[in-house]
Structure formats: C-alpha cells, structure tokens
Amino acid sequence: MAKDKNFYFNALKGQAEYAQKASQKLVSILEGFNYETLSNQLEQMHEIENAADGLNHDILKKLAREFITPIDREDIIEMVHRLDDIVDYIEDVLQQLYMYDVRELNENVLPFARIMEKSSTALCEALAEFHNFKKSTTLNQKLIDVNDFEEDADVLYMKTIRELYLEHSDDAVYIMKWSNVFLRMERCVDAAENVADMVATIALKNS
C-alpha cells in the first residue's frame, strides 16, 4: 500500500512539475519574444503538454485497476483534471499569440506570465508536501501563496482589460486578441488556485 500511496502523490506532484515547466517556458519565450520563432516554440510547448497528458493517462489507468486508494478516488480524478487544465491554459496562451500573428507584446503580458510562473512553482512545492499533509509544517503556507498569486492575477487582469478599452477603443481587433490572451492567463492562475483549494479540502477531510 505504501508503494501505491507514493505513486499517486508523486504522480500529482509530477503533474504540477509539468505545469511549472510550461510556465517557465512561457516566461522564457515572452522575455525573448520573436514572432518568427513562435511556431517552433509552440511545438516545444506542445511536447510538454503531451508529456503531461501521458502522465494523466497513467494515473487514470492505474486508478481504474485499483479498489483502495490513499485518498478518495473522486478527489484524485478531479485533481488530475484540474492540474491538466493548468498546462492546457498555458499552451493556449502561446497558441493565441501564434493564431493572431502577434508581433508586438502588450506590456502586461510578461508580468502576468511571471505571476503564472510563481503560482505554478508554489503549487509544485505544495504538492511536494502533499504526501505528508498530516505532519507538514509548510504545506499550508504554500497553499496560501497560491491563493495570494491568484489575487495578484485578479488585480492585474482587471487593470489590463480596463486599459485595453481605455487606450485602444478605436481598435476592436486589438482588444479582442488581447482579451482572449489574458482570459487564458487568468484561467490558468484560477486553475492553480482550484487545485490548492482542493488540496486543503482533502487534507482537512483526511486529518
């Protein structure tokens, strides 16, 4: 049972590590943004997403074969899907930039991506402690950190969308493009918060 227990906690941590890797990749791309290389960078991001999907399938396949799990089966399934959402939204951001043929970045996109990176890193650290949720002295603070980053993202999202309409009211296409990009970024941080909230709930139920 100990081995099986470690599998699920390690696999969930592995999913979070893919989210962290994807967010770091996004920040790196935006820091050195070049629309001419975006197609190749999108392929690199898709490789991360594919690897994350592979781990998701492994977890669900193992879950389908087992009757006893360290935490509720439904909770594991829900966490798998929510962690998958984070990587999907990060890839979506890059896909939006590519599809809209963005050649110059909005000034708020890199700061937002850095919040995404901080959020996924804090979540990764939280899930590294999840297996020890009954005794961990750092898990709760990591979950709080994820929630704090979500609040930072909310503030930046409102500021950014307001600026789009105030400063680009004569350019509906620009507003549409960047509204869609920032919506994906906001959803990514929301998804991380959802996972953190779920970890807190699971820990409470099983303590």
Which terms would index this structure?
mainly alpha; 6 helices; 0% strand
Write structural notes for this entry:
- By secondary structure, the protein is mainly α.
- 82% of the residues lie in helices and 0% in strands.
- The protein is built from six helices and no strands.
- The protein is globular, with a radius of gyration of 18 Å.
- It starts with a helix and ends with a helix.
- The mean pLDDT is 95.
Task: Provide a brief overview of the structure.
With 207 residues, this protein is mostly helical.
Query: If you compute it from the alpha carbons, what radius of gyration comes out, rounded to the nearest whole angstrom?
Result: 18 Å
Oligomer: single chain
Overall pLDDT confidence = 95
How many domain units? 1
- Overall form: globular
Total helical elements: 6
Task: Enumerate the spans where pLDDT stays under 50 for 5 or more consecutive residues.
Answer: none
**Class inferred from helices and paired strands:** mainly alpha
What can be said about the biggest beta sheet?
none
Which superfamily, in CATH terms, is the homologous superfamily? Phosphate transport system protein phou homolog 2, domain 2
Order of helices and strands: HHHHHH
Roughly how much helix do the residues carry, as a percent range?
over 70%
